[in-house]
Amino acid sequence: MIRAALAPLPLLLALAGCTTDGGGTRPESAPHPAQTPRQEAVTTRILDRTAADKLLQNAGVTLQWIDWNTRGTANARNDAGLIRLTASQASAAGPGRLWLDGRVTEVGADYFIFSGTIRITDTPDPGRKCDATRNDWRFAVTQNRPYWRLRTFEWCDGLTDYIDIYKPATGG
């Protein structure tokens, strides 16, 4: 009876010796995947230099709820190979605001990918607040228009938001 109970013991001892460090703990040099920090894009992937130059020289931003005709500012700047983008538009007739802040991770011939925060407040209705941070905001030129439009239209509360970043007037 004792012999039958001890029969699996050599097998269990052999399995215990199969760990790489003998104790089953993770080595210090390999942090748990959940503890590994996400790496920010070091540079913007530029697939079309002309489009990237147009983005860097853009002519402003609009949100249709605020004003089509009076553009806000969009500051795209090259920070050691990484295009950073900050944009805002404020309503002259009320509290409505648009704000973007982040980085451009990729620029193609007719699109760019924005990684950052978009915030809309008090427009088209007072008290409305939309605020989201994503890594995959896609802005694209369609039908040969003079701007890149955010292709995620109903990202907040079901209303369709047209956020446009305009190409420069010359060579647009």
Q: Could you say which structural class the secondary elements and strand pairing correspond to?
A: mainly beta
Instruction: Please give the number of β-strands.
Output: 9
The whole-number mean of residue pLDDT values reads 84
Low-confidence stretches: 9-16, 18-34
State the share of residues found in helices, binned by percent: 10-25%
H/E order of the elements?
A: HHEHEEEEEEEE
Q: Total domains, how many?
A: 2
Count up the helices: 3
Q: Quick one: overall form?
A: globular
Into which percentage range does the β-strand content fall? Answer: 35-45%
Would you kindly provide a written description of the structure presented here, covering whatever features stand out?
Strands 1, 2, 3, 4, 5, 6, 7, 8 and 9 form a nine-stranded mixed beta sheet that branches. Helices cover 12% and strands 37% of the residues. The protein folds into two domains: 34 residues, no CATH class; 122 residues. The chain is built from three helices and nine strands; from the N terminus they run H-H-E-H-E-E-E-E-E-E-E-E. The chain is mainly beta. Strand 5 and strand 6 form a beta hairpin. Keywords: Signal. This is Lipoprotein.
